[in-house]
Amino acid sequence: MRWSGEASGRSRITGMRHRMQDNESVLTWNWPENVHCVYIYLFPAEAELPLEQRPRHAMKLLTREEYKAKAGYRGRVEGIGRYSYRVYPCERGADGIALLRQEDDDNVIRFSTGKARIRYSIQYGSGLFRKMKPVRIELTSEVPVPKEALCYVMKEGSLPLHKEDGTAYPFIEDIAPGRNVLPEIEIPKPNRIRLFFTDGKTYGEIYELIPE
């Protein structure tokens, strides 16, 4: 791939739109009249690589004729989570096709392919004749989950209703796909625990937290 100058007003990509249809990702945009082909870059929403680090296979060439024939760009996205598309206009020259740089919000769109389920259970021991009781937390996840996404909240006398309804404690390890049993902890007998996302808006779009 060869990069040229910046995209000008007449060659800029705008009006990005996305929808899921029959398990396909359908991408459309306002196609500039003087642009005959584009390159499409698909990436995890929070992991856009710098231009010089992108592997060639991550960029897909699409012509105006192909776009018209399918009423947009259609492709499959493997995995569950948040992704982004960025579309670059191209120009043809004596040396072939060159991409025009456009690094703004007009030629990018973010979307979700669904939520990965994280099921969890909390089991309390009796702690007979003691002021503390043991607690065992077990999670089963469909995908890897970074430790920064979750916390457990402890409250005296009843279950916490939200993250601020008690004392929050961070997870110390990432969650692997499948069954995860956390190290046993001890808490005061009157206290109860519940799991929450550290940022409900960010992680709630990617994962579904299900108590069992």
Shape call: elongated
Report strand %.
over 45%
The secondary-structure class comes to mainly beta
Q: What name does CATH use for the topology of the largest domain?
A: Immunoglobulin-like
Just give the CATH class of the largest domain.
Mainly Beta
The radius of gyration over CA amounts to 24 Å
What's the quaternary structure here? single chain
Give a brief rundown of this model.
This protein has 212 residues and is mainly beta.
Topology:
Blueprint: E1 3-6, E2 14-21, E3 24-30, E4 37-44, E5 59-63, H1 64-69, E6 73-75, E7 82-93, E8 96-101, E9 108-112, E10 116-124, E11 132-141, E12 150-156, E13 167-170, E14 178-181, E15 185-188, E16 191-197, H2 200-203, E17 207-211
Parallel strand pairs: 1-8, 10-17
Antiparallel strand pairs: 2-3, 3-6, 4-5, 4-7, 7-8, 7-9, 10-11, 11-14, 11-15, 12-13, 12-16
